[in-house]
Amino acid sequence: MTQDEIIEMTKRSGLGMLLEIGGMDKCLEHFSKLISAKEQDRCCSIVFSQCESDNVAQRTVDAIRGKA
């Protein structure tokens, strides 16, 4: 999930009104980065637990993290 997708979901949920309050946009941006990182960590954990080859797992994890 991208940062823009998380922000869009926040707006659609009705929490978008928080963006109108000074400084809340930075909080939302930071929050969306935390969510994205947590989602990546969970995906990477699953990859390492399911792959028989560490090499394949590492290449997949690198792709998930955008390092490929």
Written description of the protein model:
It is a single chain. With 68 residues, the protein is mostly helical. It has one domain (3-64). The chain has three helices and no strands. The protein has helices spanning 3-12, 24-50, 54-64. Helix 1 packs across helix 2 (24-50). The longest helix has 27 residues, at 24-50. The model has no long low-confidence stretch (mean pLDDT 81).
Could you name the key traits of this structure?
single chain; 68 residues; mainly alpha; 3 helices; elongated
- Please state the CA-atom Rg, rounded to the nearest Å: 16 Å
What proportion of the residues form beta strands (DSSP E)?
A: under 5%
Order of helices and strands: HHH
Task: Give start-end ranges of low-pLDDT stretches.
Answer: none
Q: How many domains in all?
A: 1
Tell me the structural class: mainly alpha
Write the layout of secondary structure elements.
Elements: H1 3-12, H2 24-50, H3 54-64
Provide a short characterization of the protein structure.
The protein has 68 residues and is mainly alpha-helical. The protein has one domain. The protein has helices at 3-12, 24-50, 54-64.
